[in-house]
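Saturday, quiet lab. Running sequence design on the structure tokens for the scaffold JK sent over.
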């Protein structure tokens, strides 16, 4: 159907019935949305209903856009709630033998796993949860797998307390996405206390049907520190090795960068907040070299510094499984031998960096500052009710 001017007239659907909530229903729906890990599908359905609620009917498309889901999904669960209220948000029964475990029992296991601590233990096991819930251990295991709950695993996190966190995120990420013209952007840090380790007994090489074998214990043979400047545009690395980790060594590294970067280019350095980067001696040197511009990452946010990822490659491919010793060391010359072991380690690192620079690979930064801050805000909302 079209108007006289030939412009299509949007098709009007049936008028939607207002979705009104009682106080008890709203309380239940809001409780479901606050669950951090449990019943994510149910939490989404609860958010759909809350977004659709009220005497003024919001457009389905606007609700779908705000929740980043399809309009059909909004229509489905809005219709189900109007017909069956809270019970309509549960999954529909499927053909086959009816379940012998009620939804309430499943919810009780999930809630206890997430929100309670067993007596005389720091976490739930299948056995303790089975005793607590009255279900079998295999049933508890199936519930945990269904909801992706793993009480035996832990992970770590740390939120930055930097009062200038937002400004620094915008500053650093802005350099990744829009580097200044006529400038090089270097991600700089030090990997300190790299140990020249050797296993207490010889490593047995890999053979068909048998992996490489090595002793669990090792001998420490000295330390070194790797200073690295990762070019975010090309992936090339300027590096230096020093036995100590002070402002004096960082100043030497700055001098090396100054020599290796063409004189016509400005230099933007992304660094963390380590004290050696901000001493009076360093500030004086930087004042005499105005082409250097320092950009500091937020406190406790090393993940935003790309050189940290490069250090990860170095550790995985060379350091972690390396055995650094000098075969010419005599047993009677232990002290000189330890020193030589560090030299071997440093030679291995230089060789690895040289090979990297022959075929460098930059990292592609994909998250904007806005996306990073939104992810952090979402995480803070999730943990805000954790009771810590």
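Result came back. Writing it out in full:
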């Amino acid at each position: 159907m079209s108007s006289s001017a030939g412009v299509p007239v949007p098709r009007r659907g049936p008028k939607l019935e207002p979705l009104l909530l009682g106080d008890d229903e709203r309380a239940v729906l809001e409780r479901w949305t606050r669950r951090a890990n449990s019943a994510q599908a149910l939490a989404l359905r609860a958010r759909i209903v809350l977004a659709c609620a009220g005497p003024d009917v919001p457009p389905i498309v606007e609700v779908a856009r705000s929740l980043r889901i399809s309009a059909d999904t909004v229509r489905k669960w809005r219709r189900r709630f109007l017909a069956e209220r809270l019970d309509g948000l549960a999954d529909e029964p499927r053909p086959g033998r009816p379940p012998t475990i009620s939804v309430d029992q499943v919810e009780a296991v999930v809630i206890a796993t997430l929100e309670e601590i067993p007596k005389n233990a720091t976490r739930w096991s299948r056995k303790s949860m089975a005793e607590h819930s009255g279900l079998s251990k295999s049933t508890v295991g199936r519930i945990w797998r269904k909801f992706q709950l793993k009480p035996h695993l832990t992970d770590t996190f740390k939120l930055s307390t930097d009062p200038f966190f937002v400004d620094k995120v915008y500053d650093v990420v802005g350099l990744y996405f829009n580097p200044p013209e006529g400038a090089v952007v270097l991600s700089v840090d030090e990997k300190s206390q790299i140990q020249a380790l050797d296993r207490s007994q010889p490593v047995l090489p890999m053979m068909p049907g048998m992996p490489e074998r090595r002793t669990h214990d090792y001998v420490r043979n000295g330390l070194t520190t790797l200073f690295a400047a990762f070019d975010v545009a090309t992936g090339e690395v300027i590096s230096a090795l020093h036995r100590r980790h002070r402002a004096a060594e960082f100043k030497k590294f700055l001098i090396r960068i100054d020599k290796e970067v063409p004189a016509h280019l400005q230099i933007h350095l992304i660094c963390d907040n380590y004290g050696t980067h901000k001493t009076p001696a360093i500030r004086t040197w930087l004042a005499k070299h105005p082409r250097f511009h320092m950009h500091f990452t937020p406190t406790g946010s090393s993940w935003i510094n790309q050189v940290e990822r490069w250090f990860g490659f170095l550790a995985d491919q060379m350091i972690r499984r390396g055995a650094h010793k000098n075969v010419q060391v005599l047993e009677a010359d232990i002290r000189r031998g330890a020193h030589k072991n560090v030299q071997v380690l440093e030679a291995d690192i230089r060789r690895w960096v040289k090979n990297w620079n022959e075929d460098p690979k930059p990292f592609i930064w994909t998250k904007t500052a806005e996306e990073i801050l939104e992810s952090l805000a979402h995480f803070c909302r999730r943990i805000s009710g954790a009771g810590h």
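Notes for JK: The radius of gyration is 30 Å. Residues 1-11, 326-338 have pLDDT under 50 and may be disordered. Ask whether to fix the surface positions before the next round.
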